Amino acid sequence: MRDILKTTASRRAVLGAGLAGASMLAMPSILRAQDKSLKVGVYGGYFKESFDKNIFPEFTKTTGIAVESIAEPTGEAWLVQLEQAARAGQAPADVSMMSQVAMLKGQSTELWAPLDMAKIKNASGLIENFVNKYPDGRVAGIGAVSWYITLVTNTDVFKEAPTSWTALWDPANADKLGLLALVSNSFLLEVTAKTHFGGTDALDTEEGILKVFDKLAEVKPNVRLWYRDEAQFEQALKSGEIPMGQYYHDVTGLAAGEGHPVRSTFPKEGGILDSGCWALSRASEKTEEAHVFIDYLSQPAVQATLSRKVGTSPTVKRELLDLTAEEFAAVSSDIAPIVPRYDLYQTKSDFLNQKWTEMIAG
Predict the structure, then answer these.
(1) Would you identify the CATH topology of the domain 147-272+337-361?
(2) What is the C-alpha to C-alpha distance for residues 249 and 256, in angstroms, rounded to an integer?
(3) Is the pLDDT of residue 5 over 90?
(4) 48: Cβ contacts below 8 Å, ≥ 6 apart
(5) How many angstroms separate the CA atoms of 333 and 321, rounded?
(6) CATH 3.90.1150.30 fits 11-146+274-331, yes or no
(7) Which of 18, 74, 120, 163 would give a disulfide with 295, using CB separation of 3.0 to 4.6 Å?
(8) pTM of structure
(9) Is residue 137 helix, strand or coil?
(10) Strand, helix or coil at 227?
(11) C-alpha distances in Å from residue 302, one per residue of 50, 71, 322, 340
(12) What is the structure's pLDDT at 34?
């Protein structure tokens, strides 16, 4: 899911054919059953291991479709590989978990085969923003998993939890913050727009973006570390060396559960809700299996299992889940989230990176 997760070797979940005692007359149907397979690209490391252990075997048991999971490279390298392969009529994976920005870039080349929503009945329970659509309304992807970035603090240093993202601007927090180092993964423009300008619509124009950048630049005296290495910030947060910042809600909760003096807070303006989509390569010949897979993963029961076993936030509506209040709070929140403006990172990438370098990172 994130860079701290190390890529591991691909594993294969093979459906046992049970050939013992089968007559020759049964062979054609057995061969057809063996043909029911799907290559699925997922983020590597712990994330992939969790899917291999907790999700894919049950999917195969339920549907008879064998899964070969592929560890995706980080960043947009996987998008490039899928695009190049599709031009050659090949699919390194049939279905892949893709970032929202990668989804938009793939749309521009018609990389994603449109999904037939009539075959994905469980999509009716999805939260609306987890249905990714082409400009003409065709469905390009379905929300696979989501996760939150929240305001985190060391409880030894901050006895009371902050209630608002405005804490990032508080002069009392000079030299105390750890913030993500890139405009495209920190989503601090969206945080600033929601906190000080009434919402992310403030980013609709370049003039508005510059005003938001000006306001965000005011946090710089409070920043001790602009981090790319998440483990570095996590360690500094635990020790109290850098006692406040933005970090992943689920990881912080796990650290707190292990006895570290850290907490994750959903500010009143909302946590940052990031997510990945299931998308089907246009070169895939496994359209039927892919729809069965996406429908299965969209079930409330499976989303609840992901929350319990993988630590992701559900993409389906709260009322459909059997998660306890404690289980839900460990991965999500009922406070309306800050949803990143992924469109900007596709259409204004160069402009945003330039201004980030000039005004924030410089």
Answers:
(1) D-Maltodextrin-Binding Protein; domain 2 (3.40.190)
(2) 11
(3) no
(4) 5, 8, 42, 69, 71
(5) 13
(6) no
(7) 120
(8) 0.83
(9) coil
(10) strand
(11) 13, 21, 11, 25
(12) 53
